[in-house]
Amino acid sequence: MDLSAINPAVLVASLMVAAVPIVLAAIGELVVEKAGVLNLGVEGMMIMGAICGFVAAVATGSPVLGFVGGAVGGAALSLIFAVLTQYLLANQVATGLALTLFGLGVSALIGQGYNGIKPPSIGDLPLGPLADIPVLGTILFRHDWVVYLSIAVIAAVWAVLKYSRAGLVLRAVGENHDAAHALGYKVVRIRVLAILFGGAMAGLGGAYVSLIRVPQWTDGITAGAGWIALAIVVFASWRPWRVLIGAYLFGGITVLQLNLQAAGARIPVEYLSMSPYLITILVLVIMSSGRGRASAQAPAALGQNFHASR
Amino acid sequence: MKRRILLASAALGLGLVMAGGAFAQDKLKACWIYVGPIGDGGWTFQHDQGRLAVEAAYGDKVETAYQESVPEGADAERVLTQMALSGCKIIFTTSFGYMDATNNVAAKFPDVKFEHATGFMRATPNVSTYNARFYEGRAVMGTIAGLMTKSNKIGYIGSFPIPEVIQGINASFIHARKVNPDVSISVVWAYSWFDPAKEADAAKALIEQGVDVILQHTDSTAPMAEAAKTPGVIGFGQASDMSEYAPSPRVSAIIDNWGPYYVERVGALMDGSYAQSDTWAGIGAGVVGIGAITDAIPAEVKAAAEAVAASIADGSYHPFTGPLMKQDGSAWLADGERADDGTLAGMNFFVEGITGEIPK
Question: For chain A, how many structural domains are there in total?
Answer without folding.
Answer: 1
